[in-house]
Amino acid sequence: MKRVTIALVAGVLALPLxxxxxxxxxxxxxxxxxxxxxxAGRTLxxxxxxxxxxxxxxxxxxxxxxxxxxxxxxxxxxxPEPGFTGRDSFTYTVSDxxxxxxxxxxxxxxIGGVRITGGAYGSALTPVPGRKxxxxxxxxxxxxxxxxxxxxxxxxxxxxxxxxKFRLRDGKAVLEQVIPLRAADGTPYNGQVxxxxxxxxxxxxxxxxxxxxxxxxxxxEGLVAPKDxxxxxxxxxxxxxxxxxxxxxxxxxxxxxxxxxxxxxxYRVPNKGMEGLALTPDGRTLVGAMQSALQQPxxxxxxxxxxxxxxxxxxxRTRATxxxxxxxxxxxxxxxxxxxxxxxxxxxxxxxxxxxxxxxxADKKLFEIDLTGATDVGPQAAGYDAGKGGVLVGGKSIxxxxxxxxxxxxxxxxxxxxxxxxxxxxxxxxxxxxxxLDPSGGFFGHDKVEGVATTDGGRTVVxxxxxxxxxxxxxxxxxxxxxxxxxxxxxxxRQDDGEYLAVDTTKLPAATSTATVTxxxx
Length: 522
Hints:
By secondary structure, this protein is mostly beta strands. It is 5% helix and 38% strand.
């Protein structure tokens, strides 16, 4: 039986007058029709999901005579057109396979009327040890957009990359703690280019002033949280993997420049370094994933179109490293790269392979991979030459050897050279899921999904969108300083901000149910 509720908000009565049809079965989502009433010229608020069987509102239609906004948690705001009285209606659709948790954090700043949003803790996502509903999120180096000369503009040069602790509850991601990343002496990290690993970028502020290199420059991208309360964070500049204490102070760093990481990783494409980081369930091994192929000295082809990328393991007891090949799905045509890796076991992982396009119809997939049987192409491998890009095949680096091969051809050519990449199979087509739930792209339709976490071996997967370098901005509106920022918006017109999506994989393919809301305006 549908529960009848009365809500009085700002003097407006929201009263369900009639219940929808009785439930016909006891499984799957089920939305019920609602009949509400309000006064002319007043905004009505109500909860349309509370008496449905579903975990999220995934889409809704427009009303003929008023504006409609329904959050994923079912919170409805309806405002009738000025002067309208009578009956209005719209539909909404629910699913029980997903649940959305927006961050709703205040902006970092408002510059020229444009908000720099504060919810960009999506570069990585990892569970708080021992907790089912708590996660650590990670920012990257901070807000930045492209400059007219091909460099970068940082509107907040003093931004400090940080870890945020979130509790996912009641349809909200609640920020409970912020842990800024700092050097061992307590100096805050920043987003400037590191002199230890020059990317060739020129970074300026909004007034066009060049920002100098910084020894504390760090572009944080991957995050894991061991049970001892510390953190390991990978970045794109080195790439480095840095160990931080529970207070955010650096303890030690792994680097391709001192032999603690394979030396060829220094050939990473700028801003395409160690994008993902995992920790095996036993806590013994770090597993890092590069974003794309390396920019090898003998590779003239665009590295982003090359299918090979490296997965590196580090034994935290012995510091021994191993290296394996992961093959992207034809990046020359899909424009995909890797953004995250998450451990399921000591050898099995989820890998987030995605493009940079918003929904609908984008290419965002999670693959399950297994390192078992893959060829180690790391420093212990035969034919390894760090100065020439790692393992050589016919005198060429692996990336140059594969070159413009399709994924299928690369697999064959590598096999002929005695190299077996990691095995991969599709685990979850994220793009197909969210576009199927809302074909307009309005439900979790972000251009980048960069965080993937699970607390139950993959039964439930939590995803984070990443404003990446954007923080709700995606460019400038003028060609000369002082620069004016342009807001980054989603298909439904909202400014992009951080949110987390939980997917119950046992309920896929996702079923939906649609109901009608009728509103009498008097």
